[in-house]
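User: Please fill in residues for this 196-position structure.
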């Protein structure tokens, strides 16, 4: 049986007064689903396992474990153009956010690029260090755990250093520090990286 009418999204509709719904034209329903069903939601592993007829140009895929969205067009392309932000809540030993407007460390994702801004402070000597300053929330981390240079900084006593992400943890890059970083210092953060 053909549809009795069409809905606002052109979906086939079957009236209660029409023929039995189980006599619906399944070809018509399948054609409609194929026409509008261009979005899948599952994990990164599932997206990467798709092959053959499971892939077509225009397929959009939201990864539930990363929060990232991809578009298939003769290959996967990063697609998420939404702006997402989050405050940093996990800090290394004796590190904390600098108090004051605009200083709270925050990550902002715009498409495939992430920005980290704010400032942190390291307490007195004897605890803490520069090998674990803070941890980036999972949805904002690069897809690999390899070391990735993300920016440089000059702390409040004038020591310059390169900053690197290692498995989502921000730290100074060993061998890329000019001077002794010291303790009881503030560290401004202006970093960025891509998610591909």
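Assistant: Residues filled in for all 196 positions:
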């Amino acid at each position: 049986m053909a549809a009795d009418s069409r809905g606002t999204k052109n979906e086939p509709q079957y009236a209660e007064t029409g023929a039995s719904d189980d006599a619906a034209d399944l070809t018509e329903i399948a054609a409609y689903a194929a026409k509008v069903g261009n979005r899948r939601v599952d994990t990164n592993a599932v997206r990467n396992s798709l092959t053959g007829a499971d892939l077509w140009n225009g397929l959009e895929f939201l990864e539930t474990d990363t929060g990232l969205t991809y578009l298939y067009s003769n290959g996967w392309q990063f697609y998420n153009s939404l702006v997402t932000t989050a405050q940093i809540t996990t800090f290394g030993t004796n590190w904390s956010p600098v108090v004051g407007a605009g200083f709270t460390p925050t990550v902002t994702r715009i498409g495939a690029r992430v920005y980290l801004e704010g400032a942190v402070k390291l307490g007195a000597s004897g605890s803490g260090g520069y090998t674990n300053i803070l941890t980036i929330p999972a949805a904002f981390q690069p897809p690999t755990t390899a070391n990735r240079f993300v920016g440089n900084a000059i702390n409040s006593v004038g020591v310059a250093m390169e900053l690197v992400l290692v498995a989502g943890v921000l730290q100074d890059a060993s061998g890329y520090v000019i001077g002794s970083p010291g303790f009881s210092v503030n560290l401004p953060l202006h970093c960025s990286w891509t998610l591909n």
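For context: The chain has two domains: 5-78, 83-194.
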